[in-house]
Amino acid sequence: MTGQTILPADTDLVLLLVGGGHAHVAVLADWIRKGAPGQLHPVLLTPEPVLRYSGMVPGWIAGQHKIDDGLVDLAGLAARAGVTLVSDSCVGLDPETRTVRLASGGTLRFTIVSIDTGGEGQAVQKLGNDPRLIDVRPIGAFVRQVANIGAPQNVVVIGGGAGGVELAFALRNRAGSIARPSVTLIAGKAGLLAGFAPAVQRLAAGALARQGIAVISDDARLDNGVLIAGARAIEPADCIIAAMGSAAPGWVRDSGLATDKAGYLAVNAYQQSPSHRFVFAAGDVAARTDRDLPHSGVHAVFAGPVLAANLRRAAAGKAPAATYRPRWNNLYLMNTGDGSAIGSYGPLAAEGRWVLALKHAIDRRWIAKYAQLAQKR
What we know:
Blueprint: E1 14-18, H1 22-34, E2 41-46, E3 50-52, H2 57-61, E4 71-73, H3 74-81, E5 84-87, E6 90-94, E7 99-102, E8 107-109, E9 112-115, E10 120-121, H4 123-127, E11 133-135, H5 139-147, E12 154-158, H6 162-172, E13 182-186, H7 198-210, E14 214-216, E15 220-223, E16 226-229, E17 232-233, E18 239-242, E19 246-247, H8 250-253, E20 265-267, E21 279-281, E22 286-288, H9 297-315, E23 331-335, E24 341-345, E25 348-352, H10 353-375
């Protein structure tokens, strides 16, 4: 299909959603409830028919969820919203011709575009290549790889953020393991849970120690097939999990759209590109220009309804009006894999089975909300 435009020739006005991330799930929900915006043909471009909710992946590894429990049915939501689903990936965007280039070789044209693809894994670029290396991003591929790694005896997790900490706990308590694997967490020079309150860091450090998970506060690299942290070799390592955050997709940097210094798509308070007013974005692919906002699924979830409102106004030829103003702090719930969890809210911290019960309730409610929308007829 190289060079072909895959929508019907008479489809002139297109509102294109690129990516099936957390924010676009909220947009699809808005279109189901209120109808898709006006005169534009709605299209969703995504390589997967489902969104895997990353917050439930550690619980799946530890046997607390089934593998499909954390899936949102993108195809079902699109069908309910009257949206054309295109199963492919974006590898390029030209704002001058208003076209998206697809991995398959085709193109999609658009009138207005919204981008929520997430970032790209950067483990190989930061560490070096190794057959044992598994990047957390993209999350769908990560789950498939972890499901097939067999029974590693020595696991190393690289990344001292909340994601790396949760995965270290989960892999130490991996369901189905005859013997618990040895787990080492390389947190980096920034240390364990940098940016979190000292009380949270203390609880996490205590839980890691109780479970026999070694923590190394040094940066990691791969050198001729050897994993090194600081000046020491961390071997043997049967499996190396990289939870190091994401990088901006190369096609964003090459698109001609405004970006920040790291190459993420720049957006203003309305989730709108400052260089091209018909381009919107949210989630890890985007960077706010009006405030310093960390890349986090929490912010993508909350930005979703704002994005939906502004896309509706843009489709009607109106200027966007809704803005996402982050709260002074957010609730983080970190699964420790052993039936407990650590909660963090600003300077406050708590640990216990009730924290895990709260996390499960919040996660399952979020999934159930979209499952009901996708199935309702």
